Amino acid sequence: MMPFATGQVMTDQFGASAEAEVFWNFLLNGVSVLSNDQMLIGVNGPNQTGQFQLGPGAVSRTFSLQFGAVNTIELRISTVAAGIEATEVPEPATVVLLVSGLGFMGGALRKRLKTADRVNSRS
Prior knowledge:
Helix content: 25-40%
Number of strands: 5
Structural class: alpha+beta
Number of helices: 1
Shape: rod-shaped
Low-confidence stretches: none
């Protein structure tokens, strides 16, 4: 058996880290006879790229099959990729909206206080 795989992991401008993993398992009649679980690549920091390559390397093992019996041969391949985003930075439009909203609230509060002072001074 000659497993072979290539891949790439990347982080964007907000990425803190990313990693990729490949797991393969060769089963004979439901029993694992060959397997490999290997962390292939991990990158840290924004705007980073990492490439990986597994193989070509021969993996071998001898096993016997019973003549006249039903045998099941299975190959399971799984991949996992994960990324962690750095602390979120608000977009400039969000900051402008927040500041303008606070400004309008302050203006409304100031107007309400002036109106309340006028009503209290008349009494």
